[in-house]
Amino acid sequence: MSARPLSPGAKVRVRTGDPLTHCRTPRYLRGRQGTVVRALGRFANPEELAYHRPGLPALVLYQVAFEAREVWGERLTEPSYRIHADVFEHWLEPLPGEAEASS
Amino acid sequence: MRSDSPGGAAPVDADEIRPDSRRLEEALRGLLLERGVFTEVDLRRQIEATGARTPLLGARIVARAWADAGFRDALLAEARPALEQAFALDLEHTPEITVLENTAGVHHVVCCTLCSCYPRNILGVPPLWYKSREYRSRVVIEPRASARSGSSTPRPTCATWSFRCARRAPMAGTKSASRRW
Q1: For B60, which of A92, B54, B99, B138 is 20 to 30 Å away at the CA?
Q2: What does pTM read for this prediction?
């Protein structure tokens, strides 16, 4: 998998899905819309490493910012705040028409 | 592994160390020693080194950043070399560290996502509550209320909160990297 790189500011949506296996994408962020802050580098996929597999090719890990209001909706009882989460590329869908790196 | 989690993905409750975890640790430690992966001396040294680390060092780092603008800037720009230089630490095998600065308007809270990212080389073993399901579930949805009820209360009045979840994982230490599947 080698998706086009996402630039800072790109709007993304976290994929939905509920794997039973090891997964570091917080469940409360799945299906939510956020904004890429920056790319953090490439890292072996922990979803594979957890089962003694190589986890290669390495995947790009992005720091993504979410608004608490967008994440929690009416469940939010406090003023909104920002949630920064590190999310691997295979969990992110770029939203069309937004900033993306040209490649 | 619990029977209700076929992939072993059940959230970890760190509030207690289960007896089977202890037995597993003992068995694994015995095997690693028996096969010479490390020695009793190595083990003791590592336990002592980890045990010697406490949040006190974190407090010293923050205090230095308050008092020394040059160190503060270096810490925010690239934490590892700044820490190695100023505090004579060996962080070669520590994953990359990002330092975030609280201001009058922004307060950061770090929430564990069980990716083994806690900087033990600097702060020691994390408190059990840090990995507990209750803390991880609550602090992301009501950070201000969580802070007010916690023992180390940050300023609950700041306008903006920011979280960092799940720092990146290190690539090192994957002995199975050559295995094909």
Answers
A1: B138
A2: 0.72
